[in-house]
Amino acid sequence: RAGHPFTGSDSELLTAGKTLLEQGADVLVLDCLGYYQHHRDVLQKALDVPVLLSNVLVSRLAAELLV
Questions:
Q1: In what helix (H) or strand (E) does residue 53 lie, and over which residues does it extend?
Q2: Among 28, 54, 58, 57, residue whose Cα is nearest residue 43
Q3: How far apart, in Å, are the Cα atoms of 23 and each of 18, 26, 35, 56?
Q4: 1 — pLDDT class (breaks 50, 70, 90)
Q5: Would you say 55 and 36 are in contact if contact means Cβ atoms under 8 Å apart?
Q6: Hey, which of 12, 27, 40, 56 has its CA 20 to 30 A from 18?
């Protein structure tokens, strides 16, 4: 079960992250505009894997293309 960015709790988000790690994930990607730095920080502090925000990745890619 995924942690919902708008109605879910930090606890649900952590449970979802732990479940993905148990299934073999090496990286967690928060792929919804509703996820913010807070969500990333919660997961990053509790779990020993990289956690990426898709909106940050896209904005950095766009910035590289505009240079």
A1: strand 51-53
A2: 28
A3: 9, 10, 22, 25
A4: low
A5: no
A6: 56
